[in-house]
């Protein structure tokens, strides 16, 4: 994506290069995954692709990475159609703006033991409505006034384990998001599981409010 929520930074550099604790977010993500034994990465490129390629050309690493260059934006999962996979393998897909500090191997074990076709990392998050809300009767009379109420939702944080055989459902050369993929899997009665992670074990640096909070967190 173009990272519009991070303007004006993304007018100059692509979102994956936003710095956190002295390193670009995408480098922190790859290094964390590499620490869990993942050695091969595919990086999907479109917006400011040459800037990202130039950055990675300067990195010395013990892992292998390949670029997937999209001729047009293919959405959050459409790019996976451009990769060849071995049979009976699993793919870890992550957004470039999600930093995490939980055990990926535990996440993978849950995916395998549950025999899921897709496992989504999720987290419970509280939301506060910054206004008083009105509870109204059928006659239009005020029943109660709730001052700045809060509610909790289980949210998708942007990390997925995917059985490679299900990637056949992704169309060629078409914008295709995870939400589209999930709809197809549900229609095919495939197993979709949720893996819960603690709210403090991940951060979204794709918007300024969350980014500023992330700077105060300790992420290796």
Overview of this protein structure:
- The protein is an alpha+beta fold.
- The chain has helices at 25-35, 49-57, 104-113, 178-187, 208-214; strands at 19-20, 23-24, 40-45, 64-69, 90-94, 98-100, 118-128, 132-136, 142-147, 150-163, 192-196, 202-204.
- The strands form five sheets. The protein has a four-stranded mixed beta sheet with strand order 5-10-7-11.
- The chain is globular, with a radius of gyration of 20 Å.
- The two termini are 26 Å apart.
Features:
alpha+beta; four-stranded mixed beta sheet; two-stranded antiparallel ribbon; 12 strands; globular
Query: What is the arithmetic mean of pLDDT?
Result: 86
Low-confidence parts: none
Strand count, sense and barrel status of the largest sheet are: 4 strands, mixed
Given helix and strand content, the structural type is alpha+beta
What is the C-alpha radius of gyration, as a whole number of Å?
Answer: 20 Å
């Amino acid at each position: 994506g173009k990272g519009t929520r991070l303007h004006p930074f993304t007018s100059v550099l692509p979102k994956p290069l936003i710095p956190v604790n002295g390193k670009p977010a995408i480098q922190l993500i790859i290094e964390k995954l590499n620490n869990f034994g993942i050695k091969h990465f595919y990086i999907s490129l479109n917006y400011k692709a040459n800037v990202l390629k130039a950055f990675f050309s300067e990195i010395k690493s013990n892992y292998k990475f390949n670029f997937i260059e999209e001729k047009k934006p293919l959405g959050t999962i459409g790019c996976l159609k451009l990769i060849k996979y071995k049979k009976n393998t699993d793919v870890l897909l992550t957004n470039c703006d999600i930093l995490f500090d939980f055990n990926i191997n535990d996440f993978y074990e849950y995916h395998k033991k549950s025999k899921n076709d897709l496992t989504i990392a999720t987290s419970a998050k509280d939301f506060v409505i910054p206004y008083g809300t009105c509870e109204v009767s059928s006659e239009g009379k005020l029943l109660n006034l709730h001052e700045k109420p809060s509610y909790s939702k289980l949210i998708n944080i942007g990390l997925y384990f995917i059985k490679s055989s299900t990637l056949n459902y992704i169309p060629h050369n078409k914008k295709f998001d995870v939400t589209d993929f999930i709809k197809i899997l549900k229609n095919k009665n495939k197993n979709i599981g949720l893996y819960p992670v603690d709210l403090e074990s991940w951060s979204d640096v794709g918007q300024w409010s969350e980014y500023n909070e992330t700077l105060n967190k300790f992420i290796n």
